[in-house]
Amino acid sequence: MDVRIDEWRAPAAELHQCREAATDVEIVVMVPERPAMVFGSAQRGAATTTPQGWPVGIDRVVRSSGGGAVLVDPARSVWIDLFVSRQITAMPDDVVRSMLTAGRWWADAVASCGVSGAWVYDGAMMHGATPEVCFSGRGPGEVMVGENKLVGLSQRRTRHSVRIQGQFHVADPTDITHDILGLDPPDGDERPALWPDSGVDAVALGRTVAAALGAMISS
Description:
By secondary structure, the chain is an alpha+beta fold. The protein is built from 5 helices and 10 strands, in the order βαββαβββαββββαα.
């Protein structure tokens, strides 16, 4: 199996554009040029009617996959996408099972990089108290630490490949996300689990985790 690791730098909207896997498995560290609030496909109205106005320096993007809004920030979060050919037997040809497979790769990879207690949620989709926000709920394959989500996942499929988008945070995005969306302050379990080293360089960490994902997928 050919596993390739790449790094792309562009505005978040361009990084979300649809494409196919260039090889059996392509692991791409996504580095947006500017922070962006990325809304799920069902949130197009929220993307244009945020009650608090829109902060300077943060792009707004609507992705093609579902789920809640998530802040991507090259200095405060790590965004890695998996592009997997649908011919690869390691990737089940089923939405839920493929998410669980990707979640196990992610959990093993972050554990190998020093995260303790990571586990893969394998139940039904569960919305939190603020379903507008990605890290409030949980879905099959997402990686948890305790009862808080560490790695959020979403999926896009074409005839030829599966794209599973993943992200985790090194700094808490909850307050700014809730402020932009006009939401009440969240409870503690509505916040994401954070990477244990808060002072880490997010781009360098992305490269490290991508390499660990490559090793897990290849093994």
